[in-house]
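Lecture 7 notes: from sequence to structure.
We start with the chain below.
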Amino acid sequence: MKKLDTLPRALLLAGLAALAGGCAAPQDPAATPGTVRPGGLQDPQFVTAAAGNGRYEVQASRLAMYRAASPQVRSYAQMLVDHHTLANNELMDLVRARGMRLPGVLPRDKRTKLDRLASASGSEFDRMYIRLVGIEDHQADIALFERASRELRDPELRAWASKTLPTLRSHLDRAQSLGSALR
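Predicted structure tokens for the same chain:
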């Protein structure tokens, strides 16, 4: 559970910056580079990371709905598909309204994780899915969304991040319970 806490803050920020590379800036002529707080999480960084993470979690969870050995893991995966699909759609509506574009492919690190998951089976798959998607990825999501709810410039994006946090926390709690039961 504390694995994310041990990651250096700079590593997390570097990963977010790498994810943001493919996101276009809003098409607002009043927005100038000087209006973004230096060092703060920028709206395009967050949008790109949140969208990539959300797409990945839906894809990984769809895989789990069919590959998981445990009915509890399949049920958890279905819940993630439902919740993250809804959140992804809400985010896409916000993004479109701001004239932003997102890359159409999963980030490389997420594709690698998906490939690792696809190579596992049975109870090994269940444990890996819960550890990677349910716990590690949700810990990272929560850290990102907490930061976004404090630092984003766009009030609607900030509000969406804040509104989504309780759901992400409940996903993490359930994954931690499942992880303990699968040992």
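Points to note: The radius of gyration is 17 Å. The CA atoms of residues 109 and 130 lie 17 Å apart.
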